Amino acid sequence: MAIRWMNLGKLPETKLAKYMYRHNISQKTLSEFSKVSTATISRLCKYKAVGPNVKTANKILKALDQLVGKKHEYTDFWM
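The line above is the sequence of Helix-turn-helix domain-containing protein; the predicted structure tokens follow.
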């Protein structure tokens, strides 16, 4: 049986999406903590070829640090 991504019947595509799924973090929650738009978070979760600019990546990584309680690096999700 496939894992459902946010109950939409889709599997997580990117490392970021898989990480969010494992830690039960919704796109909306990450968007609120990082102050990055939900559209940007959605795009980063859906497309493997898309990477954020440095400013956006730092906001997302800082939010993940707060939510999970662990330090994250850019290379954990992109590259």
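Note on the example: The two ends are 30 Å apart (CA to CA). Residues 51 and 78 are 6 Å apart (CA to CA).
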